[in-house]
Specification:
- Keywords: Kelch repeat, Repeat, Ubl conjugation pathway.
- GO terms for molecular function: type II interferon binding.
- One of its GO terms (biological process) is protein K33-linked ubiquitination.
- This is Kelch-like protein 20.
- The radius of gyration is 38 Å and the shape is globular.
- The protein is of the alpha+beta class.
- The protein is about 25% helix and about 25% strand.
- The strands form eight sheets. The protein has a ten-stranded mixed sheet, with no helix packed on it.
- About 40% of the residues are buried.
- It is built from 18 helices and 35 strands.
- It folds into four domains: about 100 residues, no CATH class; about 120 residues, Potassium Channel Kv1.1, Chain A (2-Layer Sandwich); about 100 residues, Serine Threonine Protein Phosphatase 5, Tetratricopeptide repeat; about 325 residues, Neuraminidase.
- Strand 31 and strand 32 form a beta hairpin.
Length: about 700
């Protein structure tokens, strides 16, 4: 790297006109010790007029040979002299005409930062070149000031200012957890840290003290994912204490939108009065009626009645008594002994009575207690789970929100599953069995849309099953038929979520894989499928009271890999495949007449079609038309008796499962806003691997789905 300025260096004893040139090395007191080249009195030009940096030294370099100004005076007593201002050459990037441009290759190392950190961390572990010891409780942590200062504004202020710690070898750090400090120092040297339930409560305060914003954000993100009605109030208070505004906002929203569950938690009963008031004052509080708010307040008071009885008037001011029904206001609120014994409480009840009894005076009585709470927008969301993609089983999951008309990716399952049975129980999505591309599965996973997480702590089924029908009836999850890799199954078992246990029930009279299942009128229906030889049109109905299956009227068409759903109190069966071709036809079963009747056909043939009822709309999703695997969706219009196209999924799926969950708009936002880009499915499906059977699914609110392909 050549430089534009000439550093003319004078040595002791040199005379005017002597030019420092050839070579020198950096020293603390400047560029000294250079050999000099004398300019003769008649010299008009400097032949070597530049200085070039080479490693740690300087050497002269032939430049353009323009006249140079000579030093004309001595500087006694100085060991070096910089006369740059008296001798410059011009733009270093612009060489004279005729001089070839030097070749250049900029290089930035990707390995350098990591390797440098690894070496520095190794030095720390061996206590080499460490210049500070942090004393945290009984723990001593050796470190380098420059590393700590680079990562933490707290340490940078400590070590670069006039504080006493800047001169101390040992620095005592108080009010911080030893293990948390170790983890944060490790992060400074490795850029890695693991946030978990066991350390987040000490890690976040320590990160706040050291002003490690990145770790604060990581802790808050972890806590967001752990939000639950049983802990959201504790997380809310924790966020407030440590000024985590975003976490506090999310925890507030979660508390408001899940108030009906939160009010039954132990944390709610332990709330101080001011925090309780903050919650019940919100217009966003998600309650069916103001009666729930009153009942929650009275339960809170009675939890510690001696201490909280004096606080009742203050808290009751924030219950919107004028919004109560007259019967509840008079019969429950007005007659409560705690209310009757307090004058301020009685005044609030009288105010509410006047509001209800004098409608003509209501415009003059408006206030915070008469303002209705904002209703929470709820809607059903459709989830498409697993299946086949690019010739292999997949674990990815996507969901469709009719309110936004968007398909987006959510958290993937821990296992790849084709032919998986899917259903919804207690607002949780269950994925049962399937095939992972090499073996048949009996494992089960459960998805919580509020946390966007899958858990595998569900008991497995008694036998491996793919192409299994799954439905919810009477609080139990039923797994019906399928195949285990050896034969088709007629085995049926049900899962009790309270016991985390599967139990066999009566088997079907016919073996069925690719069977469609539906729940209607307290009965479980098994519709069509294949017995391993040919498609079926037979239908069986399970009575849980008798633990018996009964044969009912058959469909008009043999169908395997069909879609099935309960819609307007009838069972719809659409698409599928008969002995020869994929089907677009549809029919429906009326349980009052025990008869099947035809329905207008879909616009496309669809075998392995998913059928779902979402927000009152019957939707046929995907499938195979005999040539192409489809990602389009059709919606049935019962008034016009037609099917119309309604967009499509992002990706084609085969042998996947579908479930429908009712969610608030807030829950949908919390679960999906930050994760869709990280969980995007990359390959676009064009060709599907053949030879796999479908899975049929059913949700507790009437959703039935099948996936698969023809054989």
């Amino acid at each position: 790297m050549h430089i534009t300025t000439c550093h003319w260096i004078r040595e002791p004893g040199s005379q005017p006109g002597e030019l420092g040139s050839r070579r020198g090395y950096l020293r603390p007191d400047g560029l000294i010790g250079l050999k000099t080249q004398v300019w003769g009195a008649g010299a008009a030009r400097a032949k070597r007029s530049g200085i070039e940096l080479s490693g740690e030294g300087f050497s002269s370099r032939c430049m353009d040979g323009k006249p140079m100004r000579r030093c004309t005076s001595t500087r006694p007593g100085e060991t070096g002299m910089d006369v740059t201002s008296r001798c410059t050459l011009g733009d270093p990037n612009k060489l004279p005409e005729g001089v070839p441009q030097p070749a250049r290759m900029p290089y930035i190392s990707d390995k350098h930062p990591r390797q440098t950190l690894e070496v520095i961390n190794l030095l720390r572990k061996h206590r080499e070149l460490c210049d500070v010891v942090l004393v945290v409780g009984a723990k001593k942590i050796y470190a380098h000031r420059v590393i700590l200062s680079a990562c933490s504004p707290y340490f940078r202020a400590m070590f670069t200012g006039e504080l006493a710690e800047s001169r101390q070898t040992e620095v005592v750090i108080r009010d911080i957890d030893e293990r948390a400090m170790e983890l944060l120092i490790d992060f400074a040297y490795t850029s890695q840290i693991t946030v978990e339930e066991g350390n987040v409560q000490t890690l976040l305060p320590a990160a706040c003290l050291l002003q490690l914003a990145e770790i604060q954000e990581a802790c808050c993100e972890f806590l967001k994912r752990q939000l639950d009605p049983s802990n959201c109030l504790g997380i809310r208070a924790f966020a407030d204490t440590h000024s985590c505004r975003e976490l506090l906002r999310i925890a507030d929203k979660f508390t408001q939108h899940n108030f009906q569950e939160v009010m039954e938690s132990e944390e709610f009963m332990l709330l101080p009065a001011n925090q309780l008031i903050d919650i019940i004052s919100s217009d966003e509080l998600n309650v069916r009626s103001e009666e729930q708010v009153f009942n929650a307040v009275m339960a809170w008071v009675k939890y510690s009645i001696q201490e909280r009885r004096p606080q009742l008037p203050q808290v009751l001011q924030h219950v919107r008594l004028p919004l109560l029904s007259p019967k509840f206001l008079v019969g429950t609120v007005g007659s409560d002994p705690l209310i009757k014994s307090d004058e301020e409480c009685r005044d609030l009840v009288d105010e509410a009575k006047n509001y209800l009894l004098l409608p003509q005076e209501r415009p003059l009585m408006q206030g915070p207690r008469t303002r209705p709470r904002k209703p929470i927008r709820c809607g059903e969301v459709l989830f498409a789970v697993g299946g086949w993609c690019s010739g292999d089983a997949i674990s990815s999951v996507e969901r469709y929100d009719p309110q936004t008309n968007e398909w987006r990716m959510v958290a993937s399952m821990s296992k790849r599953r084709c032919g998986v049975g899917v259903s919804v129980l207690d607002d949780l999505l269950y994925a049962v069995g399937g095939h992972d591309g090499s073996s048949y599965l009996n494992s089960v996973e459960r998805y919580d849309p509020k946390t966007n997480q899958w858990s595998s702590d569900v008991a497995p089924t008694s036998t491996c099953r793919t192409s299994v029908g799954v439905a919810v009836l009477g609080g139990y999850l039923y797994a019906v038929g399928g195949q285990d890799g050896v034969s088709c199954l007629n085995i049926v078992e049900r899962y009790d979520p309270k016991e985390n246990k599967w139990t066999r029930v009566a088997s079907m009279s016919t073996r069925r894989l690719g069977v469609a299942v539906a729940v209607l009128g307290g009965f479980l229906y098994a519709v069509g499928g294949s017995d391993g030889t040919s498609p079926l049109n037979t239908v069986e109905r399970y009575n849980p009271q008798e633990n018996r299956w009964h044969t009912i009227s058959p469909m008009g068409t043999r169908r395997k890999h069909l879609g099935c759903a309960v819609y307007q109190d009838m069972i719809y069966a659409v698409g599928g495949r008969d002995d020869t071709t994929e089907l677009s036809s549809a029919e429906r079963y009326n349980p009052r007449t025990n008869q099947w009747s035809p329905v207008v056909a879909m616009t496309s043939r669809r075998s392995g079609v998913g059928l779902a009822v979402v927000n009152g709309q019957l939707m046929a999703v995907g499938g195979f038309d005999g040539t192409t695997y489809l990602k389009t969706i059709e919606v049935f219009d019962p008034d016009a008796n037609t099917w119309r196209l309604y967009g499509g999924m992002n990706y084609r799926r085969l042998g996947g499962g579908v479930g429908v969950i009712k969610m608030t708009h807030c829950e949908s936002h919390i679960c999906y806003s930050s994760i869709s880009s990280d969980l995007e499915l990359q390959p676009v499906l064009e060709v599907w691997q053949k030879g796999r059977d479908p899975a049929l699914l059913n949700s507790g609110n009437g959703l039935c789905v099948v996936g698969g392909e023809r054989k």
